[in-house]
C-alpha cells in the first residue's frame, strides 16, 4: 500500500482550483509521464518542468526602459481613461508615472470593473510586461502582471515558461503547478548522503522549488544541481525497479538447460557459412547462462546484418536439446515469416517441428498449432506478440527469444517471461544503442555483442542526390535492374494532414511501373498480410527486382542479394532509421549502394545527418551522433520532449548520473533487498513518485 503521506499527490488534477475537466484534458497532453491510461494527477504536475524563463528582473525607470524589452516598473496610478462609449476600437488606457516619466498601460476589450480594482487611482503598483514606445511615448499593452507593491508572490521576477498546448494558458498551468507543489509533503531523504554531497544535490522538495520558482534563469537549465537531482532520482527509481523485476524473474526459475550438443553440432554443420568470432563468443555466453540454474536475461546486441538470427536459432536448439520448447517473437509479421522461412528448412532436416503463429493463422490450422504446442509436438514456434497475448499453452517453454526494436517496454517484456514456466530469455536488438541507453532501457541485463560482420562483406557506398535528379537516377536503376541487381525504393509514410506534396509508395509505384514493368513490386503497411508476404516472396525469389516500399521493411528484412537501396526524402528520416534502412543492403558478398534522395533546401540538422550517413557505417557512431544532433537541436531552442521513457532525465545531459544510480541501486538492494530499512522505506516513496508502483508490488509478492 502506498504510504498515506503521498496521497495529496495522487489526487486528480481536477481537484486543483482552476482545473475543470476541459483544462485537465489539455494538461494531460503536456505532462511528461506516459499516462494514456489514467487521469493526470497532481504528482504529474510537479515533474512538468519549465523549458525556459521570462526574465523580469530588469527594473529601469519608465524613461529608461528600452522599447521591446521585458521590464518591471513600479508606478503610481494617475488616472483611468475609458474609451468613448460604444467605441470598441479605442483601448482603455490607464496612465501611471514614476520619477522619470509617464506611461500608458493599454487594454483592449477591457473589463472595466477589474481594471479599477487592480489599479485604483493614487495607488502604487508593480507592472511587468513588454515595453513599447509609440511616437516617443512609452506604453505597455496588456501587462503580463499587475501586482500591489510588495506582493512578490503574484509577480515572479524570473518566470518559468512551461510547455503548452492550444487552449491551455500559461497562467492556468502555472497556478495548477503551484498548487501541486504545495501538496508535496515533507519526505524523508532517500538519497545516499555521499552521492548528495559529491553532487551538491539539494533535497527533493528544494530541487522542485528551485526549478519551478527560479531565482535565476540558470536554475531551470537541465544541468543545474536541482534538475540533476531530479534526474538522478528518476534514474535511481528506474534502476531499482529494473533490479527488483529482475530479481523476481530470477527467483521464479531454476533449471539448468543442457543437452548432449549433437543437435547444435549438426546445425552448425548444415550452415552454409562459418560463424564469426563474435557469434561464437555470444553463443558461448548464452550457453553458459542456459546451463546455470538461474534464469537467463540476456541482451544480444548487434549492428544491422551482423547475424543475430543464427545465434538465436542455435540458442533455441539448445533449449530443444534439453527437452524444452523455444519461441521466437518478432516485431512484425513480415519478420516473423522471414525468420520462419530461414529456420524451418534447417531444423526440419534435423527432425524438429517448427510452426509460425501470428494473428493470421486461423481455424483448423490454428487449432492444430495450438495443440502441437500444448502437446510438445512442436519444438520451436516463431510468431508476433500474438504468441503471448492469447491463450497459447506450451508443454514446456524453456527459452523465449524476443527480436525487437524498442517496441516493447522493459516491464512488458519481463511480464511476458513471467508467464508460462519461467523460461530463459534472450532479447535481440539491432538498434545500436549507446552504452548509457542500454543501461537505462535494459537495466543490468547481461549483454552479448556482435562486434563484427560476417567475412566477405563489402562497405556500402552511400551517395546523396537532390530530388531534381530523379530522372537520371531512374535511368541508372533501370540499367542496374537490367544488369540483374535488386533494388529497394523506400518512400516516407504520408500522413493525411501532410501539407507538402509527397509521393506515397503507391504514387511512386505508379510512376515507376511504366519504366520497370513486371519487375516492379510494391509493399506497404496497409496491404493485407498475405499480399505483403507475396510481395516479399516475389522480391526475394527475383520475380520482381525493384521493390517500392514504405518503412515496413525497415527492420530485419533479409534479402542478401539486394544491392541497392534508394531512400526518398531521406531528410525526413532520423539517423537511426536511415541506418536501419541502409542495413537492408550489404548483406551478401556483393558491393552495395545506398542513395539518399533529398529535397532542397536542407535544414542544418538534416544536412548533418546525411553527411554522417556518408561518413560512416558504424551503428554505434551513428547513434552517438544522433544523440549529439538532438542535443544541438535543444541548444537551438527546438528542444525535443526529452528522452523517451523519462519524465525529467535527459540522457544527453545526465548520462553520467546513470551509472552512479545503477551502482547505488545495486548496493542498496544487496544490503536491503526488501527495502525494509529506513532508507529502503524512503526509496519506496521515490518509486511511487516516479510511477514504479509495480516494482513495489513485487516486493510484497516476494
Ligand atoms: N557467419 C556468417 N557468415 C556469413 N553470413 C552470415 C553469417 N551469419 C549470418 N549470415 C548471413 O547474414 C545475413 C544477416 O544475418 P541476420 O539476418 O541474422 O542479421 P541480423 O543481425 O538479424 O541483422 P538485422 O538486424 O539487420 O536484421 C543473413 O543473410 C545471414 O544468413
TrEMBL record:
A UniProt-annotated Pfam family: RecG_dom3_C
CDD domains: DEXHc_RecG, RecG_wedge_OBF
EC number: 5.6.2.4
Highest rank taxon of the organism: Bacteria
GO-annotated molecular function: 3'-5' DNA helicase activity; ATP binding; DNA binding; hydrolase activity
Keyword annotations: ATP-binding, DNA damage, DNA recombination, DNA repair, DNA-binding, Helicase, Hydrolase, Isomerase, Nucleotide-binding
One GO biological process term: DNA repair
Cited PROSITE patterns: HELICASE_ATP_BIND_1, HELICASE_CTER
Cytoplasm recorded as keyword: no
Catalytic activity: Couples ATP hydrolysis with the unwinding of duplex DNA by translocating in the 3'-5' direction; ATP + H2O = ADP + phosphate + H(+)
Helicase C-terminal domain residues: 469-628
UniProt keyword Hydrolase present: yes
Boundaries of every Helicase ATP-binding domain copy: 289-450
Enzyme class: isomerase
Family: Belongs to the helicase family. RecG subfamily.
Function: Plays a critical role in recombination and DNA repair. Helps process Holliday junction intermediates to mature products by catalyzing branch migration. Has replication fork regression activity, unwinds stalled or blocked replication forks to make a HJ that can be resolved. Has a DNA unwinding activity characteristic of a DNA helicase with 3'-5' polarity.
NCBIfam families for this protein: PRK10917.1-2, PRK10917.1-3, PRK10917.2-2, recG
Protein name: ATP-dependent DNA helicase RecG
Source organism of this protein record: Mesorhizobium zhangyense
Phylogenetic classification of the source organism: Bacteria, Pseudomonadati, Pseudomonadota, Alphaproteobacteria, Hyphomicrobiales
